[in-house]
Write a structure and sequence with these properties.
Elements: H1 9-33, H2 39-68, H3 80-110, E1 116-117, E2 121-122, H4 131-166
Antiparallel strand pairs: 1-2
Helix pairs in contact: 1-2, 2-3, 3-4
The chain binds protoporphyrin IX containing FE.
Amino acid sequence: MTGLHTYGNVARSFHWLIAVLLVLQVPLAFYMVDQPLGPAKLGNYATHKSIGLLIFSVTALRLAWRLTHPAPPLPAGTPGWQRIAARLTQVVLYALMFLMPLTGLLRSQAANFPVSFFGLFTVPTVVGVNEELSRGMAAAHEMQGTILLLLVGAHGLAALHHHFVRKDGVLRSMLPLAGRGRP
Ligand code: HEM
């Protein structure tokens, strides 16, 4: 596998940075919602919101990079439906990395909870207090979380399928030490 057929170093760094942030973010979310009300719960909510805003910002940079640095082509002979499934999964995953922070932000602000970014600054208010909107956004956020888990599962299984069944270089092209990738 030559460097030309791997994702570049920047693309791989973005990919694994988002993966690590999600591994922190999603279990924290399920843990915090079941905690009894108190300082520990509130602290975890604040951390969840900050990590979510970080994911939003990193995804914006990542998308800008992706649009200017095309991904390596899938192996020749990849069936059309798999190409479509891969593209669709990736597009929806990108969309969720923007939509989940947005529904989370609206849910919080509509319930009159200010949102801070790691205590550095408070995000400007985009919606006023609105209980109904807050409930709707909470339901949307939860549904998006379920879709995210399903798609991350499919995405991971597809990567393992490439590696162990098709034995092509698709998984390796995204691994941190995938040869001398492009910049
Ligand atoms: C990509 C980023 C994010 C992911 C993957 C994510 C994921 C989740 C998940 C899986 C839950 C638990 C399911 C539920 O009960 O709703 C949750 C809950 C929650 N999230 Fe996020 N979230 C993200 C960003 C944010 C942001 C930026 C905010 C606020 C600014 C936020 C606010 C909340 C709140 C307030 C809850 C609790 C919902 C409730 O108590 O009704 N999230 N999040």
